[in-house]
Amino acid sequence: MDKKQPAQKTRGRPAIQAGQDTVPITIRMTAQQRDKLQRLGGAQWVRSKIDKARDPEAKA
Q1: What are the φ and ψ backbone dihedral angles of 51, each rounded to 5 degrees?
Q2: Distances in Å between the alpha carbon of 13 and those of 2, 3, 5, 57?
Q3: Which domain of life does the protein's organism represent (predicted)?
Q4: Of 54, 46, 37, nearest in space to 16 by CA
Q5: Nearest CA among 39, 44, 38 for reference residue 16
Q6: Coil, strand or helix: which one is 54?
Q7: How is 1-51 classified by DSSP, letter by letter?
Q8: Nearest to residue 40, comparing CAs of 31, 49, 29, 28?
Q9: String of b and e for 19-34 (b: at least 16 CB within 10 Å)?
Q10: CB of 54 closer than 8 Å to CB of 48
């Protein structure tokens, strides 16, 4: 009998977007703020807010 090899497991977290490196950051907040952040959508919500925000250093 031939035994099939299991699929190779990838290591680490999956990429947010293919071809883009990410960097971890740490912010301090209260437990209530952390809970609210999770209800709002966590890291994905934060990234969307940063992407939508106007860059204060960008020329208008």
Answers
A1: -65, -35
A2: 32, 29, 23, 32
A3: Bacteria
A4: 46
A5: 44
A6: coil
A7: -PPPPPPPPPPSPPPSSTT-----------HHHHHHHHHHTHHHHHHHHHH
A8: 49
A9: eeeeeeeeeeeeeeee
A10: no
3-state secondary structure of 55: coil
Check whether 14 has a pLDDT greater than 80.
no
Summarised one tens digit per residue, pLDDT across range 34-53 is: 999 999 999 999 999 999 99
Q: Tell me the two tokens of residue 10.
A: 């990838």
Question: Which amino acid, residue 1?
Answer: M
Residue 27 amino acid letter: I
